[in-house]
Recover the amino acids of this structure.
């Protein structure tokens, strides 16, 4: 099945073939993580931890349940979430005195504790993150990784002395995601979300959107500047050096299992998923090509090769009693970047055949020095996968001058900056307004809606 | 505060001082994991993963929520849990059609999927595990790590062709925990739980109990043989080589965050917690002893030392602007096994002072070859900590011949094997019957209750 023809069906089928998730669990939108899918997710967890640990964030873990009393303190926030949270109302056979929310996100769980932890300017900045399940009572059609009810979620929460310090944090977050998304081979566009679409409780929100082959965009990370909106509600205050009490300024940074969905969608092909080497639980699979009478020699050589590569690469040897063709199919469906075949002819020459998942290219390489060759191939694949996806995304951007001209992909237009015109873009085209480019582009011409002089550039796309 | 005098207060205070958890979260029994506590927990996660991955288990991740319809299928199981599960009854503003349980354990989430995954004998054994939060609506007094409402939980679930294969799995589990508990420096007694106290739905249950300094035992791992009790309810069947359909035999293996509580309780002292080197997020902390005029030299030497140790040990350098004494206090409270002090006199001699957390012993060691020396010291500490705790536990076992003679610690008695006598032991002594020794001991004498000839040994203790 080719993904251009029926993206939705292709997407579901490659996830099933790769055994990432099983969606037959008896609650819609809550798919079981199978071992291979969970291994991919853990690689992404690890990448997040490396980047956030290296920038002075510390990992915590907050309770899942939030008392209704805390949850309802910030008015915009509760309005944004109350229609799609799960409520725990009973413990055992009895109703609870205070209902509990399954966290949809953790502001209202964390900030009452921030109020206890932060006393003086010396306690700032406070930079924490957690990797947890969050829950949304999703009433729209669910789709594995992309729109689900239990979400594997990454959330960093910070508190700072001043707005400027919080702004610096947003800059750091953007840099972190530059590095992360290179590791995931996912290009993206950073937009400042329109005011009418910012996170409930935020001063402003930034979104990172990638492009899926269906022509729709997918939000894969968000960055919110809260100013002191939450700190005023949860009383997150510090004493400054002059002894005055001030409210902290806060930010958040969020990412989710959608990253896996985006990788599947952007890089997969008719044979299955294709994993970036940084994310692949298995980077190299060794398939011994056994021939009658030579089984033992080849098995031994394959195992020796496995041993020699193991310390430098994530390598697996497939010794199952199956035909080589079945094994090729199995590992291609799972997106393993490189396959190493070792047969009697190769053995005689001291060589192996290396097959690259992204393009099917085969080459014979000497066993001597193989680890280094494989490593540089993986580095190159990593760069090429990102570059190809980035080109596809850039090529999809169309500058339009009339609302009738919107196309699949990302539409770029001029805007006067007024909310009513921004809303009109969404209403008249059926697209989602992504917002204005965070890395400012000069506006020119006239507003696509009202014809007044443009003040800004606006992006719109069909979005998941 | 000394732990022998008031164990409960001591226990709470050292957890607070070490900054493992914060129990001021507004739901009782749901404490926030602070960065250091979470780092300890992650070390334990890692140890579990290593042992279970190495024995052919694969990690999965199942949804948190279980539909009431699945949850209620196994009668004993639901009877055992229905009075202490949390119920999700509403999504957004509307009641759900089917109520959902927050998993108290995952049999009823997993086994409907096992029924889909297992078709033939070639699919067996199926050996899976997950590390997740489970929930109990605990109505008794809660206590950090030991009795909580959100539990960091480890659960392995397996399915086998025959009862004998499942028995082999229980053996493997016992061996895995032999290795794990050595890493955690926790000795334990393995008991076959009495029939009236087995896991709801199990054929039999084994429990591993360690001894806390309060004289009470704490269950730190469990192993359940389910036979085909669950597979009959959830229709987990396979086709055997002769084409017949048979029910699978199942086992589980469970462990929880109680391990952290046990480590705190067993090894801590008046200065704070003491971590086994295998579990310590920081194994060695370097404290430069700065002296006026020599700050730069010492700082540089301390950083060089840090660099040189970093690849071989989990090492931290404390460069905060605090007096050395404050730093000593800080890291002692956190149980870091070794402290390395580097001052001007040491620097001149090419030495450092190494202080061991378990006994406060100081020794001067040459910087040359330090990494190897520290590593062997850590190995020795690991062995000594286990041995000391094991001795304390063994010393606490008292053989008693009359029910009036029970003491703190573990009481060992003779038993006729009849349930009514076993229950009487619990009722008349106020102790918990732990069960019969899994590694059988010869019974002798008369039943402590009825005076009939003894058939078995019975252990009882006050338990958490």
């Amino acid at each position: 099945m080719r993904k251009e023809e029926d993206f939705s069906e292709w997407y579901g089928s490659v996830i099933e073939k790769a055994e990432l998730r099983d969606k037959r669990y008896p609650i819609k939108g809550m798919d079981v993580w199978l071992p291979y899918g969970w291994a991919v997710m853990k690689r992404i967890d690890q990448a997040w931890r490396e980047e956030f640990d290296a920038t002075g964030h510390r990992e915590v873990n907050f309770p899942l349940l939030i008392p209704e009393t805390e949850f309802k303190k910030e008015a915009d926030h509760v309005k944004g979430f109350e229609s799609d949270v799960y409520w725990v109302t009973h413990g055992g056979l009895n109703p609870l005195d205070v209902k509990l929310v399954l966290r949809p996100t953790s502001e209202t769980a964390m900030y009452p504790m921030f109020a206890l932890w932060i006393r003086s300017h010396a306690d700032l900045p406070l930079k924490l993150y957690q990797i947890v399940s969050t829950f949304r009572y999703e009433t729209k059609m669910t789709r594995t990784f992309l729109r689900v009810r239990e979400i594997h979620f990454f959330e960093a929460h910070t508190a700072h002395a001043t707005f400027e310090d919080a702004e610096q944090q947003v800059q750091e977050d953007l840099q972190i995601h530059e590095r992360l998304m290179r590791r995931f081979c996912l290009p993206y566009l950073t937009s400042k979300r329109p005011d009418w679409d910012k996170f409930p409780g935020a001063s402003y929100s930034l979104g990172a959107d990638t492009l899926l082959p269906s022509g729709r965009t997918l939000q894969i990370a968000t960055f919110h500047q809260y100013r002191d909106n939450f700190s005023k509600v949860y009383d997150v205050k510090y004493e400054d050096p002059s002894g005055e009490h001030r409210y902290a300024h806060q930010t958040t940074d969020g990412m989710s299992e959608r990253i896996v969905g985006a990788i599947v969608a952007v890089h997969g092909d008719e044979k299955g998923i294709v994993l970036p080497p940084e994310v692949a639980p298995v980077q190299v699979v060794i398939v011994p090509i056994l021939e009658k009478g030579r089984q033992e020699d080849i098995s031994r050589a394959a195992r020796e090769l496995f041993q020699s590569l193991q310390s430098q690469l994530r390598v697996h040897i497939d010794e199952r009693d199956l035909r080589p063709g079945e094994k090729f199919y199995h590992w291609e469906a799972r997106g393993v970047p490189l396959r190493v075949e070792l047969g009697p002819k190769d053995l005689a020459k001291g060589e192996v055949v290396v097959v690259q998942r992204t393009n099917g290219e085969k080459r014979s390489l000497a066993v001597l020095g193989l680890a280094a060759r494989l490593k540089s191939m993986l580095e190159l694949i990593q760069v090429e996968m990102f570059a190809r996806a980035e080109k596809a995304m850039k090529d999809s951007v169309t500058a339009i001058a009339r609302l009738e001209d919107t196309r699949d992909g990302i539409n770029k237009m001029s805007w006067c900056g007024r909310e009513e015109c921004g809303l009109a873009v969404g209403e008249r085209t059926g697209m989602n307004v992504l917002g204005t480019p965070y890395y400012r582009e000069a506006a020119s011409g006239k507003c696509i809606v009202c014809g007044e002089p443009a003040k800004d550039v606006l992006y719109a796309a069909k979005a998941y």
Remarks:
- The mean pLDDT of chain B is 96.
- The longest helix of chain B spans residues 370-395.
